[in-house]
Prior knowledge:
477 residues, alpha+beta, CATH 2.40.50.140, 7-stranded mixed β-sheet, binds zinc ion
Amino acid sequence: MEHPGVFELRPSKSAPAIHVRVLRSWVPDYRDNELHFLLVDQEGLGIQAVTKENDCTNVRSRLQIQGCYEISRYACVDVDDFTAVITHPAMIRLGSASVFTPIADTQELPTQYFDFATRRKMEIQAKKERGIVDFIGIYLKLEDKTSKKGRPYVVLTLRDISNQDMSVALWKEIATSTHRFNRRNIETAASPAIVAFTSLKANEQNGLQLQSTNATYVFLNPHHLEAELLKEMWQNQEPHHPALQIVPDNYVSIADLLQLQTTEIKGRTFNIKAEITEIQTTKGWSYTACPKCNQSILQVDTQWFCTKDGMQEKANTMYRIIATLSDNTERIQAVIFDHAGRQLLGMTCEELAEKEDPINTLYSLMDKEALMSIQLQHDKRMRTLKCIVNKASYPAVENIEATSSSVADATKTPAPTTPGQKGSTATGAKRQLEFDGKPSQPKYLHIHTPRILTLNTLSPADSDPTLKRPGKRNLTN
Ligand SMILES: [Zn+2]
Protein backbone atom coordinates (compact mmCIF):
# COMPACT_ATOMS: atom_id res chain seq x y z
CA MET A 1 0.00 0.00 0.00
CA GLU A 2 3.05 2.27 0.24
CA HIS A 3 3.20 2.67 -3.51
CA PRO A 4 1.46 5.64 -5.02
CA GLY A 5 -1.70 4.64 -6.83
CA VAL A 6 -2.92 5.92 -10.16
CA PHE A 7 -5.59 8.04 -8.48
CA GLU A 8 -3.39 11.10 -8.20
CA LEU A 9 -1.84 10.97 -11.65
CA ARG A 10 -2.53 14.08 -13.70
CA PRO A 11 -1.43 15.23 -17.14
CA SER A 12 2.04 16.81 -17.17
CA LYS A 13 2.45 16.22 -13.43
CA SER A 14 4.84 13.93 -11.59
CA ALA A 15 5.04 10.29 -12.61
CA PRO A 16 6.07 8.23 -9.57
CA ALA A 17 6.82 4.51 -9.83
CA ILE A 18 3.51 2.68 -9.69
CA HIS A 19 2.64 -0.93 -8.93
CA VAL A 20 0.04 -2.22 -11.36
CA ARG A 21 -1.30 -5.30 -13.07
CA VAL A 22 -1.64 -5.27 -16.87
CA LEU A 23 -5.17 -6.38 -17.70
CA ARG A 24 -5.75 -5.94 -21.40
CA SER A 25 -4.15 -4.60 -24.55
CA TRP A 26 -5.53 -3.53 -27.91
CA VAL A 27 -4.85 -1.53 -31.03
CA PRO A 28 -7.51 1.20 -31.17
CA ASP A 29 -9.85 1.64 -34.11
CA TYR A 30 -8.18 3.78 -36.82
CA ARG A 31 -4.89 3.96 -34.88
CA ASP A 32 -2.73 1.18 -36.26
CA ASN A 33 0.39 2.87 -34.96
CA GLU A 34 -0.67 2.74 -31.30
CA LEU A 35 -0.89 0.05 -28.69
CA HIS A 36 -3.01 0.59 -25.58
CA PHE A 37 -3.04 -1.16 -22.23
CA LEU A 38 -5.34 -1.13 -19.27
CA LEU A 39 -3.55 -1.09 -15.92
CA VAL A 40 -5.06 -1.46 -12.47
CA ASP A 41 -3.52 -0.51 -9.14
CA GLN A 42 -3.89 -1.93 -5.63
CA GLU A 43 -6.83 0.35 -4.91
CA GLY A 44 -8.68 -1.18 -7.82
CA LEU A 45 -8.44 1.96 -9.94
CA GLY A 46 -7.76 1.69 -13.63
CA ILE A 47 -5.68 3.83 -15.93
CA GLN A 48 -5.07 3.57 -19.63
CA ALA A 49 -1.54 3.46 -21.00
CA VAL A 50 -0.50 4.16 -24.56
CA THR A 51 2.62 3.48 -26.57
CA LYS A 52 3.18 4.61 -30.15
CA GLU A 53 5.07 3.95 -33.36
CA ASN A 54 8.42 2.22 -32.92
CA ASP A 55 7.94 1.81 -29.17
CA CYS A 56 5.02 -0.57 -29.61
CA THR A 57 7.02 -3.73 -30.31
CA ASN A 58 9.43 -3.03 -27.49
CA VAL A 59 6.76 -2.33 -24.89
CA ARG A 60 4.59 -5.24 -26.01
CA SER A 61 7.49 -7.65 -25.57
CA ARG A 62 8.09 -6.48 -22.01
CA LEU A 63 4.56 -6.52 -20.65
CA GLN A 64 2.62 -9.74 -20.12
CA ILE A 65 -1.16 -9.63 -19.81
CA GLN A 66 -2.05 -10.34 -16.15
CA GLY A 67 1.56 -9.63 -15.22
CA CYS A 68 2.36 -7.39 -12.20
CA TYR A 69 4.97 -4.66 -12.59
CA GLU A 70 6.52 -1.67 -11.02
CA ILE A 71 6.47 0.91 -13.80
CA SER A 72 8.65 4.00 -13.77
CA ARG A 73 10.04 6.43 -16.33
CA TYR A 74 6.75 7.15 -18.04
CA ALA A 75 4.79 10.34 -18.64
CA CYS A 76 1.30 11.40 -17.61
CA VAL A 77 -0.44 12.88 -20.61
CA ASP A 78 -3.81 14.35 -21.52
CA VAL A 79 -6.65 11.98 -22.19
CA ASP A 80 -7.12 11.39 -25.90
CA ASP A 81 -10.87 11.52 -26.50
CA PHE A 82 -10.60 9.32 -29.58
CA THR A 83 -9.05 6.38 -27.77
CA ALA A 84 -10.05 6.74 -24.12
CA VAL A 85 -12.09 3.81 -22.81
CA ILE A 86 -12.32 4.61 -19.09
CA THR A 87 -12.81 7.72 -17.02
CA HIS A 88 -9.51 8.88 -15.60
CA PRO A 89 -8.24 12.44 -16.01
CA ALA A 90 -4.87 11.23 -17.33
CA MET A 91 -3.31 8.58 -19.55
CA ILE A 92 0.11 7.04 -19.16
CA ARG A 93 2.53 7.26 -22.07
CA LEU A 94 5.00 4.40 -22.20
CA GLY A 95 8.06 4.00 -24.42
CA SER A 96 11.27 2.11 -24.90
CA ALA A 97 12.78 4.21 -22.12
CA SER A 98 10.16 3.11 -19.59
CA VAL A 99 11.26 0.69 -16.89
CA PHE A 100 9.11 -2.35 -16.19
CA THR A 101 10.20 -4.37 -13.17
CA PRO A 102 8.19 -7.56 -12.63
CA ILE A 103 6.90 -7.82 -9.06
CA ALA A 104 5.41 -10.76 -7.19
CA ASP A 105 1.87 -11.55 -8.23
CA THR A 106 -0.30 -10.29 -5.42
CA GLN A 107 -4.01 -10.53 -4.68
CA GLU A 108 -3.91 -6.85 -3.88
CA LEU A 109 -3.80 -6.15 -7.60
CA PRO A 110 -7.21 -7.07 -9.06
CA THR A 111 -7.36 -9.35 -12.08
CA GLN A 112 -10.29 -7.47 -13.62
CA TYR A 113 -11.35 -3.88 -13.93
CA PHE A 114 -14.61 -2.42 -15.19
CA ASP A 115 -16.03 1.05 -15.47
CA PHE A 116 -19.72 0.15 -15.78
CA ALA A 117 -22.09 2.86 -16.92
CA THR A 118 -25.58 3.42 -15.63
CA ARG A 119 -28.43 3.45 -18.14
CA ARG A 120 -28.49 7.22 -17.88
CA LYS A 121 -24.79 7.51 -18.59
CA MET A 122 -25.14 5.18 -21.57
CA GLU A 123 -27.85 7.43 -22.96
CA ILE A 124 -25.62 10.46 -22.57
CA GLN A 125 -22.67 8.65 -24.16
CA ALA A 126 -24.87 7.55 -27.07
CA LYS A 127 -25.36 11.19 -28.04
CA LYS A 128 -21.63 11.70 -28.39
CA GLU A 129 -19.72 10.93 -31.54
CA ARG A 130 -17.62 8.44 -29.66
CA GLY A 131 -19.27 7.45 -26.39
CA ILE A 132 -17.58 4.42 -24.81
CA VAL A 133 -18.98 2.41 -21.91
CA ASP A 134 -18.44 -0.86 -20.07
CA PHE A 135 -21.64 -2.87 -19.72
CA ILE A 136 -22.82 -5.77 -17.58
CA GLY A 137 -26.03 -7.78 -17.78
CA ILE A 138 -27.73 -11.14 -17.49
CA TYR A 139 -27.28 -13.18 -20.64
CA LEU A 140 -30.57 -13.93 -22.41
CA LYS A 141 -29.73 -14.94 -25.95
CA LEU A 142 -27.28 -14.76 -28.83
CA GLU A 143 -27.97 -14.44 -32.56
CA ASP A 144 -25.80 -14.46 -35.68
CA LYS A 145 -26.48 -11.62 -38.09
CA THR A 146 -25.10 -9.94 -41.19
CA SER A 147 -25.05 -6.21 -41.77
CA LYS A 148 -26.45 -4.64 -44.93
CA LYS A 149 -22.90 -4.42 -46.21
CA GLY A 150 -22.40 -8.15 -45.65
CA ARG A 151 -20.40 -7.76 -42.43
CA PRO A 152 -21.07 -10.66 -40.04
CA TYR A 153 -21.66 -9.98 -36.35
CA VAL A 154 -23.33 -11.53 -33.34
CA VAL A 155 -25.90 -9.86 -31.14
CA LEU A 156 -26.26 -10.69 -27.47
CA THR A 157 -29.38 -9.73 -25.59
CA LEU A 158 -28.91 -9.01 -21.92
CA ARG A 159 -30.98 -7.73 -19.04
CA ASP A 160 -29.37 -4.86 -17.18
CA ILE A 161 -29.67 -3.87 -13.56
CA SER A 162 -32.54 -1.49 -14.40
CA ASN A 163 -34.44 -4.60 -15.58
CA GLN A 164 -34.38 -3.47 -19.20
CA ASP A 165 -33.07 -5.48 -22.12
CA MET A 166 -30.04 -4.32 -24.05
CA SER A 167 -28.56 -5.63 -27.27
CA VAL A 168 -24.81 -5.73 -27.70
CA ALA A 169 -23.42 -6.27 -31.20
CA LEU A 170 -19.98 -7.81 -31.48
CA TRP A 171 -18.29 -7.38 -34.83
CA LYS A 172 -16.51 -10.32 -36.38
CA GLU A 173 -13.06 -9.23 -35.19
CA ILE A 174 -14.16 -9.58 -31.57
CA ALA A 175 -16.76 -12.33 -32.01
CA THR A 176 -14.28 -14.74 -33.58
CA SER A 177 -11.41 -14.03 -31.22
CA THR A 178 -11.79 -16.64 -28.47
CA HIS A 179 -9.53 -14.85 -26.01
CA ARG A 180 -11.79 -11.80 -26.33
CA PHE A 181 -15.13 -13.59 -26.47
CA ASN A 182 -15.58 -17.24 -25.54
CA ARG A 183 -18.91 -17.84 -27.20
CA ARG A 184 -19.22 -21.49 -26.28
CA ASN A 185 -18.68 -20.82 -22.58
CA ILE A 186 -21.35 -18.14 -22.58
CA GLU A 187 -23.89 -20.17 -24.54
CA THR A 188 -23.46 -23.20 -22.32
CA ALA A 189 -23.15 -21.36 -19.00
CA ALA A 190 -25.59 -22.15 -16.21
CA SER A 191 -28.34 -19.58 -15.77
CA PRO A 192 -28.11 -16.83 -14.71
CA ALA A 193 -24.96 -16.14 -16.68
CA ILE A 194 -23.61 -12.66 -16.08
CA VAL A 195 -21.64 -11.17 -18.95
CA ALA A 196 -19.50 -8.04 -18.80
CA PHE A 197 -18.23 -6.14 -21.84
CA THR A 198 -15.52 -3.53 -21.90
CA SER A 199 -15.26 -0.50 -24.16
CA LEU A 200 -18.48 -0.65 -26.14
CA LYS A 201 -19.63 2.18 -28.34
CA ALA A 202 -23.07 3.45 -27.37
CA ASN A 203 -25.50 4.36 -30.16
CA GLU A 204 -29.03 5.60 -30.23
CA GLN A 205 -30.78 4.64 -33.42
CA ASN A 206 -33.70 2.34 -32.71
CA GLY A 207 -33.30 2.80 -29.01
CA LEU A 208 -30.11 2.45 -27.07
CA GLN A 209 -27.65 -0.07 -28.54
CA LEU A 210 -24.08 -1.04 -27.86
CA GLN A 211 -21.45 -2.37 -30.24
CA SER A 212 -17.91 -3.61 -29.97
CA THR A 213 -14.76 -1.59 -30.59
CA ASN A 214 -11.21 -2.86 -31.01
CA ALA A 215 -10.82 -2.50 -27.24
CA THR A 216 -13.73 -4.77 -26.36
CA TYR A 217 -13.27 -7.84 -24.19
CA VAL A 218 -16.11 -10.03 -22.93
CA PHE A 219 -16.09 -11.67 -19.50
CA LEU A 220 -18.36 -14.40 -18.21
CA ASN A 221 -19.38 -14.20 -14.54
CA PRO A 222 -16.90 -11.49 -13.56
CA HIS A 223 -16.04 -10.88 -9.92
CA HIS A 224 -17.90 -7.68 -9.32
CA LEU A 225 -20.52 -6.40 -6.94
CA GLU A 226 -22.83 -5.60 -9.83
CA ALA A 227 -22.72 -9.24 -10.95
CA GLU A 228 -24.00 -10.26 -7.51
CA LEU A 229 -26.78 -7.67 -7.68
CA LEU A 230 -27.84 -8.94 -11.09
CA LYS A 231 -28.00 -12.52 -9.83
CA GLU A 232 -30.13 -11.41 -6.92
CA MET A 233 -32.46 -9.52 -9.22
CA TRP A 234 -32.78 -12.55 -11.48
CA GLN A 235 -33.55 -14.88 -8.64
CA ASN A 236 -36.34 -12.61 -7.48
CA GLN A 237 -37.98 -12.66 -10.90
CA GLU A 238 -40.35 -15.24 -12.27
CA PRO A 239 -40.37 -16.53 -14.89
CA HIS A 240 -37.20 -16.01 -16.82
CA HIS A 241 -37.70 -15.05 -20.41
CA PRO A 242 -36.74 -11.92 -22.33
CA ALA A 243 -39.04 -9.03 -21.58
CA LEU A 244 -41.47 -8.55 -24.39
CA GLN A 245 -40.65 -5.52 -26.36
CA ILE A 246 -44.18 -5.19 -27.63
CA VAL A 247 -45.37 -1.67 -27.06
CA PRO A 248 -49.03 -0.64 -27.02
CA ASP A 249 -48.64 1.65 -30.02
CA ASN A 250 -48.00 0.92 -33.65
CA TYR A 251 -50.09 -2.17 -34.15
CA VAL A 252 -50.76 -3.03 -37.74
CA SER A 253 -54.05 -4.50 -38.89
CA ILE A 254 -53.92 -7.78 -40.78
CA ALA A 255 -55.69 -6.14 -43.73
CA ASP A 256 -52.85 -3.63 -43.94
CA LEU A 257 -50.23 -6.36 -43.67
CA LEU A 258 -51.74 -8.20 -46.60
CA GLN A 259 -51.32 -5.08 -48.75
CA LEU A 260 -47.55 -5.02 -48.30
CA GLN A 261 -45.23 -5.75 -51.21
CA THR A 262 -42.39 -8.26 -51.03
CA THR A 263 -39.83 -5.47 -50.83
CA GLU A 264 -41.64 -3.98 -47.84
CA ILE A 265 -41.61 -7.07 -45.63
CA LYS A 266 -38.02 -8.23 -45.73
CA GLY A 267 -36.28 -8.10 -42.38
CA ARG A 268 -39.12 -6.22 -40.71
CA THR A 269 -41.01 -7.03 -37.55
CA PHE A 270 -44.63 -5.98 -37.10
CA ASN A 271 -46.86 -5.94 -34.07
CA ILE A 272 -50.41 -7.17 -34.37
CA LYS A 273 -53.36 -7.72 -32.07
CA ALA A 274 -55.13 -10.86 -33.16
CA GLU A 275 -56.90 -14.02 -32.09
CA ILE A 276 -55.98 -17.53 -33.06
CA THR A 277 -59.15 -18.68 -34.80
CA GLU A 278 -57.96 -22.00 -36.15
CA ILE A 279 -55.24 -24.48 -35.25
CA GLN A 280 -54.15 -27.19 -37.66
CA THR A 281 -52.74 -30.17 -35.86
CA THR A 282 -52.71 -32.66 -38.72
CA LYS A 283 -48.95 -32.24 -39.05
CA GLY A 284 -48.39 -31.93 -35.31
CA TRP A 285 -47.44 -28.81 -33.44
CA SER A 286 -43.73 -29.31 -32.94
CA TYR A 287 -40.46 -30.04 -34.66
CA THR A 288 -37.17 -31.51 -33.58
CA ALA A 289 -34.47 -28.90 -33.41
CA CYS A 290 -30.71 -28.91 -33.28
CA PRO A 291 -29.70 -28.05 -29.69
CA LYS A 292 -27.01 -25.74 -31.07
CA CYS A 293 -28.70 -23.73 -33.81
CA ASN A 294 -32.43 -24.52 -33.34
CA GLN A 295 -32.85 -25.46 -36.98
CA SER A 296 -34.69 -28.63 -37.95
CA ILE A 297 -32.62 -31.72 -37.32
CA LEU A 298 -32.77 -35.09 -39.07
CA GLN A 299 -32.85 -38.44 -37.31
CA VAL A 300 -30.09 -40.90 -38.21
CA ASP A 301 -30.52 -44.12 -36.23
CA THR A 302 -30.21 -43.16 -32.58
CA GLN A 303 -28.52 -39.88 -33.36
CA TRP A 304 -29.42 -36.63 -35.03
CA PHE A 305 -27.87 -34.79 -37.94
CA CYS A 306 -27.86 -31.01 -38.32
CA THR A 307 -26.77 -29.77 -41.74
CA LYS A 308 -24.87 -27.00 -40.00
CA ASP A 309 -23.54 -28.61 -36.82
CA GLY A 310 -23.24 -32.28 -37.83
CA MET A 311 -24.10 -35.28 -35.66
CA GLN A 312 -25.77 -34.56 -32.33
CA GLU A 313 -26.52 -36.89 -29.44
CA LYS A 314 -29.96 -35.45 -28.85
CA ALA A 315 -32.53 -33.08 -30.25
CA ASN A 316 -34.89 -30.58 -28.69
CA THR A 317 -38.61 -30.58 -29.27
CA MET A 318 -39.90 -27.11 -30.03
CA TYR A 319 -43.21 -25.54 -30.89
CA ARG A 320 -44.25 -25.03 -34.48
CA ILE A 321 -47.96 -24.40 -34.32
CA ILE A 322 -49.75 -23.90 -37.62
CA ALA A 323 -52.66 -21.55 -37.10
CA THR A 324 -54.90 -18.93 -38.58
CA LEU A 325 -54.89 -15.50 -36.99
CA SER A 326 -57.76 -13.05 -37.31
CA ASP A 327 -58.41 -9.53 -36.24
CA ASN A 328 -61.49 -7.54 -37.13
CA THR A 329 -60.07 -6.72 -40.55
CA GLU A 330 -58.73 -9.96 -42.07
CA ARG A 331 -57.22 -13.36 -41.45
CA ILE A 332 -53.73 -14.71 -42.13
CA GLN A 333 -51.94 -18.03 -41.96
CA ALA A 334 -49.36 -18.18 -39.20
CA VAL A 335 -46.62 -20.33 -37.80
CA ILE A 336 -46.15 -19.87 -34.07
CA PHE A 337 -42.60 -20.76 -33.09
CA ASP A 338 -41.15 -21.94 -29.85
CA HIS A 339 -40.61 -18.70 -28.00
CA ALA A 340 -44.11 -17.41 -28.69
CA GLY A 341 -45.60 -20.84 -27.99
CA ARG A 342 -44.00 -20.91 -24.57
CA GLN A 343 -45.17 -17.37 -23.86
CA LEU A 344 -48.78 -18.15 -24.76
CA LEU A 345 -49.02 -21.58 -23.16
CA GLY A 346 -46.78 -20.95 -20.18
CA MET A 347 -44.98 -24.25 -20.68
CA THR A 348 -42.37 -25.75 -22.93
CA CYS A 349 -43.26 -27.93 -25.87
CA GLU A 350 -41.87 -30.96 -24.05
CA GLU A 351 -44.07 -30.19 -21.05
CA LEU A 352 -47.10 -29.93 -23.31
CA ALA A 353 -46.29 -33.27 -24.95
CA GLU A 354 -46.33 -34.94 -21.53
CA LYS A 355 -49.86 -33.74 -20.83
CA GLU A 356 -52.68 -36.22 -20.96
CA ASP A 357 -54.51 -34.31 -23.65
CA PRO A 358 -52.12 -31.84 -25.26
CA ILE A 359 -54.52 -31.02 -28.11
CA ASN A 360 -57.07 -29.63 -25.70
CA THR A 361 -54.41 -27.51 -24.11
CA LEU A 362 -53.44 -26.22 -27.53
CA TYR A 363 -57.02 -25.25 -28.27
CA SER A 364 -57.07 -23.12 -25.17
CA LEU A 365 -55.05 -20.67 -27.24
CA MET A 366 -58.01 -19.95 -29.44
CA ASP A 367 -60.28 -16.93 -29.46
CA LYS A 368 -58.26 -14.85 -27.06
CA GLU A 369 -56.82 -11.59 -28.23
CA ALA A 370 -53.04 -11.68 -28.04
CA LEU A 371 -50.31 -9.21 -28.84
CA MET A 372 -47.89 -10.68 -31.30
CA SER A 373 -44.61 -9.69 -32.77
CA ILE A 374 -44.40 -11.18 -36.26
CA GLN A 375 -42.45 -11.34 -39.48
CA LEU A 376 -43.98 -11.90 -42.88
CA GLN A 377 -43.10 -14.45 -45.52
CA HIS A 378 -44.38 -15.11 -48.97
CA ASP A 379 -46.09 -18.46 -49.24
CA LYS A 380 -45.34 -19.22 -52.89
CA ARG A 381 -47.66 -22.17 -53.10
CA MET A 382 -50.63 -20.31 -51.68
CA ARG A 383 -49.60 -17.04 -53.37
CA THR A 384 -50.23 -15.17 -50.24
CA LEU A 385 -48.47 -13.85 -47.18
CA LYS A 386 -48.08 -15.87 -44.05
CA CYS A 387 -46.67 -14.74 -40.77
CA ILE A 388 -44.08 -16.10 -38.41
CA VAL A 389 -44.94 -15.39 -34.78
CA ASN A 390 -41.81 -14.88 -32.71
CA LYS A 391 -43.18 -13.28 -29.57
CA ALA A 392 -46.62 -13.13 -28.06
CA SER A 393 -48.42 -12.13 -24.92
CA TYR A 394 -51.90 -11.51 -23.65
CA PRO A 395 -53.18 -8.07 -22.74
CA ALA A 396 -52.99 -7.52 -19.00
CA VAL A 397 -56.75 -7.20 -18.70
CA GLU A 398 -57.24 -10.85 -19.58
CA ASN A 399 -54.49 -11.64 -17.24
CA ILE A 400 -56.45 -10.28 -14.35
CA GLU A 401 -59.68 -11.97 -15.34
CA ALA A 402 -57.94 -15.27 -15.57
CA THR A 403 -56.43 -15.05 -12.15
CA SER A 404 -59.30 -15.30 -9.73
CA SER A 405 -62.85 -14.14 -9.47
CA SER A 406 -62.23 -11.94 -6.46
CA VAL A 407 -59.60 -9.97 -8.33
CA ALA A 408 -61.80 -9.84 -11.40
CA ASP A 409 -64.58 -8.36 -9.26
CA ALA A 410 -62.22 -5.74 -8.01
CA THR A 411 -61.63 -4.48 -11.54
CA LYS A 412 -65.22 -3.32 -11.70
CA THR A 413 -64.75 -0.97 -8.80
CA PRO A 414 -61.18 0.13 -8.92
CA ALA A 415 -60.05 1.73 -5.72
CA PRO A 416 -58.84 5.30 -6.16
CA THR A 417 -55.08 5.33 -6.30
CA THR A 418 -53.07 8.22 -5.07
CA PRO A 419 -50.04 9.18 -7.11
CA GLY A 420 -47.56 8.25 -4.45
CA GLN A 421 -49.11 4.88 -3.76
CA LYS A 422 -46.78 1.99 -4.29
CA GLY A 423 -47.85 -1.48 -5.31
CA SER A 424 -47.06 -3.15 -2.05
CA THR A 425 -49.67 -5.88 -2.28
CA ALA A 426 -48.60 -9.42 -2.30
CA THR A 427 -49.80 -10.81 -5.58
CA GLY A 428 -48.62 -9.94 -9.06
CA ALA A 429 -52.18 -9.71 -10.26
CA LYS A 430 -53.08 -7.07 -7.70
CA ARG A 431 -50.03 -5.10 -8.59
CA GLN A 432 -51.06 -5.07 -12.19
CA LEU A 433 -54.47 -3.93 -11.16
CA GLU A 434 -53.06 -0.86 -9.51
CA PHE A 435 -50.90 -0.26 -12.52
CA ASP A 436 -53.95 -0.41 -14.65
CA GLY A 437 -55.99 1.93 -12.54
CA LYS A 438 -57.65 3.81 -15.42
CA PRO A 439 -60.24 1.51 -16.90
CA SER A 440 -61.09 3.89 -19.73
CA GLN A 441 -57.59 3.62 -21.08
CA PRO A 442 -56.65 -0.02 -21.40
CA LYS A 443 -52.96 -0.68 -21.12
CA TYR A 444 -51.14 -3.74 -22.26
CA LEU A 445 -48.56 -4.78 -19.80
CA HIS A 446 -45.67 -7.05 -20.36
CA ILE A 447 -46.55 -10.39 -19.00
CA HIS A 448 -44.07 -11.52 -16.47
CA THR A 449 -46.25 -14.26 -15.08
CA PRO A 450 -47.62 -16.47 -17.84
CA ARG A 451 -48.33 -19.09 -15.18
CA ILE A 452 -51.59 -17.39 -14.41
CA LEU A 453 -52.75 -17.70 -18.00
CA THR A 454 -52.64 -21.44 -17.86
CA LEU A 455 -55.19 -23.94 -18.52
CA ASN A 456 -56.74 -24.57 -15.16
CA THR A 457 -59.00 -21.67 -16.01
CA LEU A 458 -60.40 -23.38 -19.09
CA SER A 459 -64.09 -23.08 -19.51
CA PRO A 460 -65.94 -25.97 -21.18
CA ALA A 461 -66.15 -24.00 -24.40
CA ASP A 462 -62.40 -23.56 -24.45
CA SER A 463 -61.90 -27.28 -24.25
CA ASP A 464 -63.97 -27.94 -27.34
CA PRO A 465 -61.93 -30.55 -29.12
CA THR A 466 -63.17 -29.84 -32.64
CA LEU A 467 -60.35 -29.01 -34.97
CA LYS A 468 -61.73 -25.97 -36.63
CA ARG A 469 -64.38 -23.58 -35.58
CA PRO A 470 -65.41 -21.77 -38.74
CA GLY A 471 -67.90 -19.01 -38.29
CA LYS A 472 -66.99 -18.50 -34.67
CA ARG A 473 -65.73 -15.10 -35.62
CA ASN A 474 -67.37 -12.72 -37.99
CA LEU A 475 -64.61 -11.14 -39.99
CA THR A 476 -66.63 -8.23 -41.24
CA ASN A 477 -67.58 -6.73 -37.91
ZN1 LIG B 1 -27.40 -27.01 -35.77
